[in-house]
Fold each of these.
Amino acid sequence: MTQALAHAPRASADTETWARTGPLTGKRALVTGGASGIGAAVARSLAERGAHVVVADIDGAGAAALADELGGSSWTVDLLDTASLTDDILAEAVDGVDILVNNAGIQRINPIQDFDPVDFRRIITLMLEAPFLLIRAALPKMYENGFGRIINITSVHGIRASPFKSAYVSAKHGLEGLSKVTALEGGEHGVTSNCVSPGYVRTPLVEKQLAEQAAVHGIPEAEVLSRIMLTESAIKRLVEPEEVASLVAWLASEDAAMVTGSSYTMDGGWSAR
Ligand code: NAD
C-alpha cells in the first residue's frame, strides 16, 4: 500500500481553467476521500475559489485524475493503515496545508450483537483516529502561520443516533467532540475547526440505495425519498454534494474567521424535528 505523495503535473491547457483567483487564492487544501462524492465536490469548490488542492484517497487513480483536472496534487493513501502513517509521512502530506477537510468515510449496518468488532475498529480508525492524526500533524504549521481551517464532515448521525449504525454514530459523535477541542486549542492561533453534518447526500452510494429500495418496494424513487428515506426531513429531496461543498468553502474563507467549534447541519430540516 503506497503512502507516497504523488504530485500531479500542474497546469496543462485544461487545468488552466482551474487556476482561478478567488477568496482562497494562495491557500493549500487537503481533502481526504476526495476522489468521490462529497469529497470530490469539495475539492472542486475549493479549487474554483483559487486553492491548490491535494486530493487524498485510497483510490489513487481517481484522486490523480481529479487532481490533474484541478491543477492540484494527489496523495494515494489508505487511512486505515495507521501504522504506516508515521510522523514523517504525515508531516510531508500536510506540509503547508492551510485547509484540512476530513471527509473519508465508510458505513456498516448491523445490530450491535452481530456487529463485527473488526468492522467497528475500522470505522473508528478511518473516521476518528485518522482525522486526529491529520489534525495533529497539520496544527504546528498552522499555528506558525497564524491561519488554519479544519473542516470535518460528520453527519446528522454525529448529533442524533440511529439503530444498527453503532460504529458510524460513535465515530461521528467522536469527531464532533474532537472538532470542538481543536477549536478551543486553536482559537488563539488563528485556527478554526468546524463540522458540516449532512443528511442524505446524492452520492453514488446513496443513489444505489435509492434504486435498490425503489425496486424492493416497486415504487418510484421520488416516493422512496418522501415516504421512506426522508420521512423526518422537511424538504423531501437529497442534499446535493455541491451544496455541502459550498458550505465547506465558506467555512474555509476569511469570512468565517469568527466561526469555530460549531457544527452546521445541512439536512433539509431532518434534525429539527
Ligand atoms: P463516497 O463513498 O462517495 O466517498 C468516500 C471516499 O472515501 C471515496 O473516494 C473512498 O475511496 C474514500 N475512502 C474510503 N476508505 C478510505 C481509506 N481507507 N483511505 C482513504 N480514502 C478512503 O462517500 P460520500 O457519500 O461522499 O461520503 C463522504 C463523507 O460524508 C463520509 O464521511 C460520510 O460519512 C459523510 N456523509 C455522507 C452522507 C451521504 O448521504 N452520502 C451523509 C452524511 C455524511
Note: The beta strands are 5-6, 28-32, 52-57, 73-76, 99-102, 148-153, 191-198, 263-266.
Amino acid sequence: MENRAQWGTRVGFLLAAMGSAIGLGNIWRFPATAYESGGGAFIVPYLFALLTAGIPLLIMEYTIGHKYRGSAPKSYATMNKKMEWIGWWQVLVAFVISTYYAVIIAWALMYAFYSFGQSWGSDPTAFFVGDFLNLVDAGQIGGLVPKVLIPLVIVWAIVLGTLSRGVKKGIEVANKIFIPTLVVLFLIIVIRAVTLPGAMAGLNSFFEPDWSRIADPNVWIAAYGQIFFSLSIAFAIMVTYASYLPRKSDITNNAFITGFANSSFEILAGIGVFSAVGFMAFQYDTTVAGLAAEKGVGGLGLAFMVFPEIISQIPGIPGLFGFLFFASLVLAGFSSMISISETYVAAVSEKFNISRQRSVIYGGGIAAIISLLYATRGGLNILDTVDHFINSYGVALAGLFEVVAVAWFARELKNLQTHANKTSDVMLGSWWRVCLGVITPIVLGFQMVQNFTSELA
Ligand code: PFF
Ligand code: NA
C-alpha cells in the first residue's frame, strides 16, 4: 500500500541526517562563534539552546515528516491547508543556499589538490581573491572563472547524480560512504593538530571561559543561531528526510542521536581548528588572541586564507594535512548539499506529480545555472550579500513561522507529541511543548528584531 520511498536501514537514515547536520557550520562556524562568545563559558548557552530548541525542533520536524509522509510543503499542507506556504518558504531558502553552497564545495575541491603543491604560495589571501577567484571590486561584474567553473560542474554532477538515484540507492549510499570517511579523516587531522607545537596554547584560549559574556543577550542569540544552522533545522530538510522513515522508527531517540553527534563533531572541530591556530601563533611568535584579531578564525577566511598558511608550515609529508583538511570540507559539504537539494527535488516532484529524475533536471538544473553567478569574477561579493540576507532573515523567519504555525495556529503540538510517543521509549512531556510553543518563538522573535536593528544601526 505504501509506495513512498524509504530508507533501507535505521543507520542509513541516521547517517543521512547527520550528514546534513555535519557541515561547514561545524568546521568553520562553531569554533569561531564559541571563541567569540565566551570560550568555555559558551557551553552554557550552547547546551541550553541545544536542549530547549535544537533537539525539541528536530523531534518536531522528524515527527511531522514521519506522520504526514510528505516533503515539507505537502506535510505542512496536510497538517493545515493554510500552511503549505511555510514549506515553500523553507524550500526556497534551501534552494538559494544550495546555489552558493555548491560553489564553496567546488573551491574546497580545488584546494584539496592545490594542497599538494601549496599552489597558494607565500600569500594565500592574495592568491585566493586574485589568482584563484579573479575577484573584481564590489559593484563590478566580470566573466566566468574557469578554475571555479570546472569543479562546480563536477559538484553538481555528483549531487544531482546522487539525487536521481533515489533515497535508498542514492542519498543513503552516498552518506554511508561520506560520513564514516569524514570521521576518519577528521580524526587524523585533529590528532595531527593537537600534537603540533603551540596547540596547547590554542586550546587554552579556546576553552578558557569568560563567564562575564553569559550576561550578554547576543551570546545567547549566537548560541541559538548556531544550533539552528548546525542542525539544519527550519530548512525543510529534516521533515523531508523523516518522511522516508519506515512506520516503525524511534523518532525521539533518533533526534537525540543526531543532535549529540552533531555537537560532538562541532567540539572536535573546535579542538582541531584552535590547535592549528595555536600552532600558527607559535610560528609567528604571537598570541592566539592577536592572531584571531588580525586574521579571523571563522568562515571563508579561515578555510581559504588562514588554513593554507598553516598547511604550508606544517612539518611532515607536504600537503597531506592540507589535503585531508579540504577533503573533509568537501565530504562534509557534499552530504549537506545533498540534503538541501533533496528538499526542492522532493517538493517539486510531489507538487507537480513528476518523476524524481525530472524534478532533479528542472529543480537541480535551475539551481545549477543560478550558481554560475558565483563562479564569475564578482561571485564572492554576490555570495556574501546573499548569504547575509539568508542567514539574518530567511532562516530565522522560516523557524519562527514554523513553530508559531504548528504550536499556535494549527495547535498541533499535542497530537505530534502523542505521535512521537507512540514510536519511542523516550517519552516527551509538557516540557517539549513549552520549548516549542514558548521558548523558541521568543528567542527567534528576539533574534529577528536584533538582526533588524543592527542593520539600521
Ligand atoms: N547543518 C549544516 C552545517 O552545520 O554546516 C549546514 C546546512 C546544511 C544548513 C543544510 C542548511 C542546510 F539546508
Ligand atoms: Na552542523
Note: Residues 21-23, 25-26, 230, 262 surround sodium ion (ligand 2) (CB under 6 Å).
